[in-house]
UniProtKB/TrEMBL annotation:
Pfam families: PadR. This is PadR family transcriptional regulator. InterPro entries: Tscrpt_reg_PadR_N, WH-like_DNA-bd_sf, WH_DNA-bd_sf. Signal peptide: none annotated. Residues 7-78 form the Transcription regulator PadR N-terminal domain. SUPFAM superfamilies: Winged helix' DNA-binding domain.
């Protein structure tokens, strides 16, 4: 996720202080990984430098002055371009799971145990996400569904790999010679 573009999109509703942006981000997108204040302010400094936001007002506060940021026309254009550009699908051609399976085979460790352990962890997380989904609002349900679909694909791969493990072991050991 592009934090800069997300903050710009939040600014389209109107000028906001950095702490308001953080709160809005965390509420809408940061359920599992809230932003740090430093991340917000460093991102806003970069957006300001790039002409995508401007300081709308500076207000005195307890401590440092509080800046209120507003999106510029260039910022609106940048968000529009980002929202209308498709994301590059990630094919995961060099996944960590595949690497671990091949290394287990190369080093004489049990690839079957590795696959079983990974399957159990995927199923544990899927149960957790399913519970979260049942109690969540629509946004949380959609986030959980996205994660669950990816985990289901991983499980299918784990099952396929387990079914082909002897063939893979033969191929890997033959290539190592």
């Amino acid at each position: 996720m592009s934090i800069g573009h997300t903050l710009l999109g939040l600014l389209e509703a109107g000028p906001r202080h950095g702490y308001d942006l953080k709160r809005a981000f965390d509420e809408k997108f940061g359920h599992d990984r809230p932003l740090h204040y430093g991340q917000v302010y460093s991102t806003m400094a970069r957006l300001l430098k790039n002409g995508l936001v401007e300081v709308d007002a500076v207000e005195p506060g307890e401590g440092p002055e509080r800046k209120r940021y507003a999106i510029t026309g260039a910022g609106v254009t940048d968000v529009e371009r980002w929202l209308t550009s498709p994301e590059k699908p990630e094919p995961y051609l060099q996944s960590t799971l595949y690497t671990k399976v091949v290394l287990a085979l190369l080093t004489g460790r049990s690839a079957t145990d590795l696959l079983d352990t990974q399957r159990a962890e995927h199923l544990r997380l899927m149960r957790e996400l399913t519970r979260r989904k049942k109690g969540g609002d629509l946004a949380d349900q959609l986030i959980c569904d996205h994660a669950l679909f990816h985990l289901e694909a991983d499980l299918r791969w784990l099952e396929l790999t387990a079914a082909r493990l002897d063939q893979l072991a033969e191929t890997v050991r033959g290539a190592a010679r």
